Amino acid sequence: MEKETRNDLPGIQWFPGHMKKAQRLIEENLKLVDVVIELLDARIPASSANPMLADIIKDKPRLIALNKSDLADAASTKRWLAYFRAQGIPAVAIDSVKGRGMKQLVRQAEELARPKTDRFVKNGGRPRAARCMILGIPNVGKSSLINRLAGAVKAKAADKPGVTRAKQWIKIGASLDLLDTPGILWPKFEDQTVGLKLAFTGAINDDIYDREQVTALLLSVMRRDYPERLQERFKFKGEMPEDGLALLEAIGRKRGCLVKGGVVDLEKAQNIVLNEFRSGKLGLVTLDEVPADESADGKEKVSEAAESEGDKA
User: Fold this and answer.
1) In whole angstroms, what separates CA 114 from the centre of its chain?
2) Which of 51, 144, 185, 312 is the most buried (most CB within 10 A)?
3) Dihedral of CA 14/19/25/30: which sign?
4) Does residue 170 have a pLDDT over 80?
């Protein structure tokens, strides 16, 4: 979406819940944890991030988890991991549905918490597990991640601050406790392309925007950046329509989404495109590009981090 400037993007805004209330709830519980895990969508690492988070968590150790990495372009994910690490922010790629990256996530969280837990013991406290909180926008996979980490048993840890506040401490193995709270940061976006990408990936309720227009724009992006995916999936031979809506109609005809008189049922065609994009059937796609750091030092850091990430792969 960054590759061209558009003036016809639909205005999408979504504020499910009161921002100040969610922020206050998070701030109240931050003092109970050692580490904050920020959960992002690997397909849109920038668009699924809340710009207010850094100010809210202040000096609290922060770990970024790129979820749904199984749906994102692997090379782009490596670049994003390198970018975050070059900024001094630990980052891991995970798939909370299949359980990939869970051990690395837990290990990183434990390492980030160690200075706090070691200091606690040094000051005379009894050894305790690291404590963390997961924050993320809607539909980024917070519940799936918590359930995957917790396994079959979700036990409240005894004698912990927070239990009396109707929050639940969930034990993750022997050395990590997760504070499960209803406080989730909601995205506030002014850039319309951010709203579009959240709509493309299903982070926004499909009922609040013009699905036909958004689906047509998604197809325009796919035709520009991943034309071979559309040709292969929908069996286009030769040139595809350039206009997104015309492309949607063509896909509807190919999939037999017709009503009386041979007219394309656009709603059915929209469902096919959105469902297949979100499930990865249109291929592994990343919509956000890594920000360019023009400084020589910044380029060197990202390059070193990318090489390190490549060595791990």
Assistant:
1) 26
2) 185
3) positive
4) yes
Contact of 49 with 40, CB cutoff 8 Å: yes
CA–CA separation, 136 and 202 (whole Å)? 14
The number of residues making up the chain comes to 313
CA–CA separation, 29 and 157 (whole Å): 16
Q: How confident is the model over 95-107, as pLDDT tens digits?
A: 999 999 999 999 9
Taking alpha carbons only, the member of 130, 129, 90, 98 closest to residue 113 is: 130
Residues 6 or more apart whose CB falls under 8 angstroms from that of 132 comprise 33, 34, 35, 36, 37, 63, 109, 113, 176, 177, 178, 179
How many other CB atoms are there within 10 angstroms of residue 190's CB atom?
8
pLDDT in tens, 243-283: 999 999 999 999 999 998 899 999 999 999 999 999 999 99
Closest by Cα among 111, 137, 107, 135 to 27: 135
In one letter, which amino acid is 99? Answer: G
Among residues 116, 108, 90, the alpha carbon closest in space to that of 34 is found at 116
